Amino acid sequence: MNFFGIGLPEMAVILVIALLVFGPKKLPEVGRSLGKAIRGFQDASKEFESEFKREAEQIEQAVTKPKLPESNVVATTEPTVVDSGDRDTSHR
User: Fold this and answer.
1) Could you tell me the CA-to-CA distances from 36 to 27, 41, 46, 48, 60 in Å, in that order?
2) N or C: which end of the chain has fewer CB within 10 A?
3) pTM beyond 0.90, yes or no
């Protein structure tokens, strides 16, 4: 068992010291508080990680799919023919 880089013998020594310092009546309360603190840290860490991943995905999508510039020109289905009237068809 390897918890936070601490092996089983080290955990036993820490437990004995905690028992001597806090006493048998106070030790469960201290353990509960420590457990809640660790759980809160884990929850905050997971939320930070998910938020970081979400932002990274949004940035990646923005970089890989650049927006096309919007133009004010509207496309029509029929071509527009402009007749200037300057054609000289008499020299045939």
Assistant:
1) 14, 9, 15, 18, 36
2) C
3) no
pLDDT of the chain, 92 residues: tens digit per residue:
566 677 888 888 888 898 888 888 888 888 898 889 989 999 999 999 999 999 999 998 888 876 666 655 555 566 566 666 655 566 55
Residue 48 inside a domain? The answer is: yes
The answer to whether position 49 is within a domain reads yes
Two tokens at 14?
């820490």
State the Cα–Cα distance between residues 92 and 11, nearest whole angstrom: 108
Answer yes or no: are the C-beta atoms of 22 and 15 closer than 8 Å.
no
* Own/partner pairs, 57-66, CB within 8 angstroms, 24+ separation: none
